[in-house]
Write a structure and sequence with these properties.
The chain has about 130 residues and is an alpha+beta fold. It is built from four helices and six strands, in the order βαββαββααβ. A two-stranded antiparallel ribbon has the order 1-6. Strands 2-3 form a two-stranded antiparallel sheet. A two-stranded antiparallel ribbon has the order 4-5. The protein is globular, with a radius of gyration of 14 Å.
């Protein structure tokens, strides 16, 4: 299974380079609300915490149109031809990293492409085959 991992949890500086790379790659604009990776903070209220899609499949279970399916590498993908933009997948995501913006026609999610990992100056993120 191909997944995006947080390899160096304590190295994140909250620079948001990963969020910028993700939103620009898929929406051609920097908007952290359109990024499929988010920088949150740990329970201490200060320490940055990258939050990524773990490919759990809860989004696929919630999709009434069957628009989200798992590919051969274990990555859940959204079929934009089937997606009606209802947002139920985003509501079901336990990590809040599946995006359905009000002004966008379709939902989007991490496809383990590695754009965010390449953008990270601290090598916090990596794509792994599990």
């Amino acid at each position: 299974m191909k997944k995006l991992y947080v390899a160096k949890k304590d190295a994140c500086m909250a620079c948001k380079a990963c969020e910028i790379a993700c939103s620009e790659a898929f929406y051609k604009e920097f908007n952290e609300n359109l990024s499929c990776i988010h920088i949150s903070v740990k329970k201490d209220g200060v320490t940055p915490k990258p939050v990524t899609c773990v490919q759990c499949g809860k989004c696929a279970e919630a999709c009434p149109e069957g628009a989200i399916t798992q590919n051969a590498k274990g990555v859940y993908m959204i079929n934009k031809k089937k997606c009606v933009g209802c947002g139920k997948c985003a509501e079901a995501c336990p990590f809040g990293v599946l995006v359905k913006a009000e002004d966008k026609e379709f939902a989007s999610k991490c496809i383990a492409c590695g754009i965010c990992a390449k953008a990270c100056p601290m090598d916090v993120l990596e794509i792994k085959e599990a």
